[in-house]
Structure formats: structure tokens, C-alpha cells
Amino acid sequence: MTARILVVDDSPSDVGLIREALRQINSTAELSVVEDGEEAIDYILRRGRHAAAARPHLVLLDLNLPRKSGTEVLREIKADATIKGIPIVILSSSRSTDEILHCYDCHANSYVAKPEDLDDFYEAIKNIHLFWLNTVELPGRMRQ
Is pTM, for the whole model, over 0.85? Predict the structure, then answer.
């Protein structure tokens, strides 16, 4: 089964870096991208123009988003029994201790500060992919 990753980020350059990092590790994951928090919720709940979207196995969520913040998206997902099991990895440029602790209080599955160095950024994406899509058993990808 092909892994599905939803990237919620309004930075085309960061999305491009994620795509390139996945290409470099020969990932077969299906990548979908939305640019704001409201669209993220619509995508995950399959509403509106995302009604036919396949539910993601993993969400990479930036915090600074238009229309609805990443923290609001995180809280909304983790409060909904039908989708709260989807792992949410916060991928943010913020290294604020308060923000990191707040994300964990809101039940983020992990928090990764976006590395500033390109090679470190690629390595971080590789490690996220390796752990979340190759190592752990995810509810939507369990083998029968």
C-alpha cells in the first residue's frame, strides 16, 4: 500500500525541499499539499473540493499558516475521534520552547524544527519518512 503524506505549508520553497528530499530517498509516498489551515481540515475530513481525497497516513504541519494556524489545525484533528489517530509531525522553523511544549500539549506526535542547512533539512525529512512510514505501524496502513 502506498503511503500518503499531506504537507500543510504555505511556503512553496519548503514544499519543494520536501519533494526533493523524498525524491532523493526514492520514496514512493504519494504527496499532497495544501497551503492553509482551513484547507487542511477540509482535506483530512474530505469536505468540499477534497471530497474524493484519500485520507493521509501522515501529516507534516507547519505552524504559521493563513486562515487557521497550525496549532488550531492540530487541536481540531486531535479532538475528532474519526481522525485523531493520524500522526501529526510539526515541521516548523520555530524553536520556541513554549511553542514546542504547547504543540505536545495539543497532542502532536512529534516536533521537528526545520533545519537551516539544506543537507540537514533533507536528512530530517529522510528520518521522518524512515520512522513514520517504514518503522512504525500506522492504523491506516496495517498489514492484514
Answer: yes
